[in-house]
User: Fold this.
Amino acid sequence: MEAFAAVAREPHTEFTLEPITLDGPRAGEVLVEIEAVGICHTDLAARDGALPTALPAVLGHEGCGVVRAVGDGVTKVSPGDRVAITFNSCGTCPSCTTGAPSYCHQFMHLAYDGVRDDGTGPITTTGGESLTGLFFGQSSFATHSIAFERNVVKVPGDVPAELLAPLGCGIQTGAGAVMRSLNCRPGSAILVAGAGSVGLAAVMGAVVQGCATIIAVEPHQPRRDLALELGATHVLDPAAGPLAEQVRAIIPAGVDYAIDTSGVPAVIESLVGAMTFHGRIGLIGVPANPESTIPLNIINSLAMGLTITGIIEGDSVPDEFIPELIDLYKSGKFPLDKLVTTFPFTKINDAVDAQHRGEVLKPVLVHD
Assistant:
């Protein structure tokens, strides 16, 4: 079928709007007409060569839309169903079969290689040029997307698509880090480094979990203000002094949990100094330099019983967690609408620029 997409052709250059041709859906696949799609840092990292996705490519991995056709064997959804599209997983590896699909043994292949098991891809230009598709099992920077039965989640029709779309990656990652990965206990203290959309989703998740002390550290005043509005009990400016000292002025024993969304080694190192005994640190942010390391005093860390863990997609099982977040939003307990700014799909480059300038937290592209 004919469709329209934003194509990444060269690193560090604007997306180009082009007509495309989609084949499928084949067995196990789902054709979705996209209503809205979030822009995530991962999309830009893939465009700019930091991830192993070959260009030219159609990116986008936070899609929401309506199923228009299904391939053979698909029973989970039917044409007319509204779905959020999330990360893909194989369903058969040890991680998938034990409830940890975000650690799928085929994650890198399914997210970045852009081909089916037989080596084919579903997207070409109208002139026949092959484009890398199936990014995170969807490539939803387009009017239509080929996804898989496994990575679509049926969602209600009474919530705006622009709010459902970011649940596919960024929002479920931040909230899931608190509600799933660390499973923060009621009455505990948590420190969130970075108040972008992922960090603020973590703040909202901490409120849901009943954390008593929720500290957000963020250099930009408007984001600190929003963190307080969303439920943070304290906000810190990293320029105001050493982070560990600022945290211990609030809670002398240190925090039980910390989450880093920055990927900056110096920030992660500062979190270690802010922890209490048996504290747990979750790492979400991806360093700009893939060779980045952090110094760690092994004796002190061992004596305190610290745990440092990497977090992918908030340890989410999307079919369970995305509906939970939607219910929380509808009940007023997870105000994700405060994070989203919409742009027309054709203004994708304007949205990227606005995000880069820090003017918006979570840009979401919407189709007419």
